[in-house]
Design brief:
The protein has helices at residues 11-22, 38-44, 76-84, 91-98, 114-127, 204-216, 231-238, 284-298, 304-312, 340-353, 368-371, 379-382, 400-403, 417-427, and strands at residues 2-6, 26-31, 48-51, 64-67, 88-90, 104-109, 133-135, 147-148, 161-165, 170-172, 175-178, 187-190, 223-227, 245-248, 254-259, 261-269, 272-278, 322-327, 330-334, 360-363, 388-392, 411-414. It is an alpha/beta fold and 432 residues long.
C-alpha cells in the first residue's frame, strides 16, 4: 500500500510514517516545514518528502491520504483531495485499523507524564524480553527513536505488545474525538487529569467526557491503572467503568517512594515494600510514573522486581529534564513542562536533587494554551522554587510581566532572544 501523509514532520505523524514503512508500505509525505531532525530521520528510512501543500501532489496517486491534525479546511492539498473524492483518513484511524488490531495495546493517557511513562513501560517490557512495539510522543534515550514495530513472537504465544502514548488532543479536522478513542487498548494507564488544550476544550468537564469515551473502549478482561487521589479521574470512572482497576495508592495498590535520597526508587504494593533501585530520574511525579509503568507491565506477566531493576537503567526522554551538560560550572537542563502543575513538580524534583544550588528557570510560553494566557494567574506560583526566573515574551497576547509580578525582582521578561541570553549570562554563576 502507498500512503501519503499530510503533516508528516510532527512527532506523532512521523512515528506513524516510520511504522508504516517498517510494515512494508510505501510512504511519502508533506508538511509546511520540512527540516531536520525529523526530515533527516524520515529520509534515512527512504521516505520521500514534499515541502508545502501544493495540489500537484495528487499526481502521486497513493492508495490513501493520511491526514494529520495540523491540516485544516482551506489547505490547498486537502481541498484538492476533497474535490477529487479521493480516499483519506486520520493518522489514528489508519494506525488502529492497519497495525494496532494485530497487537496487545497498552496505552498511557493523562495530562502529565504520558511520554515518560510510555517510555518507562516500553523499556520495562523490552528488558523483560517481550520486544514491544511503541509509538511515543518524544524520543527515549534508551531507544533513540520514537516508534518501532514489535519483534516476532513465538507461535501460540499472546499477541505482541504495543505501547502507545494516548493523546487526548483531537484527531483531525473531520474527527474531533480525542486520538486515544481509536486505539482500543487492553491495558490503559490514566496518569492524571487537569485542564489543558484550551484551544480545543472549553473546560475540564469537556476533557473528562473524552476520557469517559476511552474508558468505554477497554474490555472487561483488560485493566485500568489509575491514581486513587485524582478527583477528575474519579468523576470519569463514576460515569461508568466496566474494567478492573489497579489503583496507584500507598495502602490499596501500587506506589513508589524516595528511599535514602531522591535517587533511590522504592516500590510498594498494598503497603508492602517489594524492593529498591538507584535510578537517574528525579521527583515525586517520576516516582508516580514509575509505579504506573510497573503496574501496567505486571498485566503482561512482568515480575515487579524485574521491572524495578529495568528502571534502574532507564535513561529518560529527550526534553524531559534532559541534562545538556555543564558549562563554567553551571548545569543546563532542557524540559518540556508548560502546565503549572508540571512546572511545579519539575522544579520540586530538581530542588530535591540539588538542595544547595540556585535554580534559574528560563521559560518560553509556547504551547497553544500558554499563548492564550489561560494559566497566566498560576505562572508565578508554579515557579516559586526557582531563585531567578527569565521569561521570553515574544508572540504572546497577554502580559507576562504582570503575571510574574508576585515574584518581584526574582523575575524578568525579555522580548527577544538576545536580551534574554544576555540577562541569563549576567546572572548565572558556577554552582547554578
Amino acid at each position: 500500500m502507498h500512503i501519503h501523509i499530510l503533516g508528516i514532520c510532527g512527532t506523532f505523524m512521523g512515528g506513524i510514517a516510520s511504522l508504516a514503512q517498517a510494515a512494508g508500505n510505501r510512504v511519502t509525505g508533506c508538511d509546511s516545514q520540512v527540516y531536520p531532525p525529523m526530515s533527516t530521520q524520515l529520509e534515512q528510512l527512504g521516505i520521500s518528502l514534499h515541502s508545502g501543500w501544493d495540489a500537484g501532489q495528487l499526481a502521486l496517486a497513493p492508495d490513501v491520504f493520511v491526514i494529520g491534525n495540523v491540516v485544516a479546511r482551506g489547505n490547498p492539498l486537502m481541498e484538492a483531495i476533497l474535490d477529487a473524492g479521493l480516499p483519506y483518513m486520520s493518522g489514528p484511524q489508519w494506525l488502529a485499523e492497519t497495525l494496532l488490531r494485530d497487537y496487545e495495546v497498552l496505552a498511557v493517557a493523562g495530562t502529565h507524564g504520558k511520554t515518560t511513562t510510555t517510555s518507562m513501560l516500553a523499556w520495562i517490557l523490552d528488558q523483560a524480553g517481550l520486544a514491544p512495539g511503541f509509538l511515543i510522543g518524544g524520543v527515549a534515550h534508551d531507544f533513540g527513536i520514537s516508534a518501532r514495530l514489535p519483534g516476532a513472537r513465538a507461535p501460540g504465544s499472546r499477541r505482541p505488545p504495543f505501547v502507545i502514548e494516548a493523546d487526548e488532543y483531537d484527531t483531525a479536522f473531520f474527527d474531533k474525538r480525542s486520538k486515544f478513542v481509536h486505539y482500543h487498548p487492553r491495558v490503559a494507564v490514566l496518569n492524571n487529569l487537569e485542564f489543558d488544550h484550551a484551544d480545543i476544550f472549553s473546560d475540564l468537564e469537556h476533557i473528562e467526557t473524552q476520557f469517559h469515551h476511552l474508558v468505554r473502549t477497554i474490555p472487561g478482561a483488560g485493566r485500568l491503572v489509575v491514581p486513587h487521589d485524582d478527583t477528575a479521574l474519579q468523576r470519569v470512572l463514576a460515569r461508568g467503568c466496566w474494567t478492573p482497576i489497579d489503583w496507584l495508592d500507598a495502602s490499596a495498590g501500587w506506589s513508589a517512594q524516595a528511599g535514602a535520597g531522591d535517587d533511590e526508587l522504592v516500590l510498594f504494593q498494598h503497603g508492602r515494600r517489594l524492593g529498591a533501585v538507584r535510578w537517574r530520574q528525579q521527583g515525586e511525579h517520576n516516582r508516580r510514573n514509575a509505579a504506573a509503568a510497573i503496574a501496567a507491565a505486571a498485566q503482561l506477566g512482568v515480575d515487579p522486581l524485574g521491572a524495578l531493576q529495568a528502571l534502574g537503567s532507564f535513561q529518560g526522554v529527550r526534553r524531559r529534564m534532559e541534562p545538556l551538560g555543564q558549562f563554567g560550572g553551571i548545569q543546563i537542563y532542557d524540559d518540556f513542562a508548560h502546565h503549572p502543575t508540571a512546572i511545579t513538580t519539575t522544579l520540586d524534583g530538581l530542588r530535591a536533587r540539588a538542595p544547595q544550588g540556585r535554580i534559574l528557570a528560563v521559560i518560553e510560553p509556547r504551547s497553544n494554551t500558554r499563548k492564550m494566557g489561560v494559566w497566566s494567574q498560576a505562572l508565578a506560583a508554579s515557579l516559586t522554587a526557582a531563585d531567578r526566573v527569565f521569561c521570553l515574551t515574544a508572540g504572546l497576547g497577554w502580559d507576562p510581566a504582570q503575571a510574574l509580578a508576585p515574584l518581584g525582582a526574582r523575575a524578568s521578561c525579555h522580548g527577544d532572544l538576545d536580551s534574554l541570553l544576555a540577562a541569563i549570562a549576567a546572572a548565572a554563576v558556577a554552582g547554578d
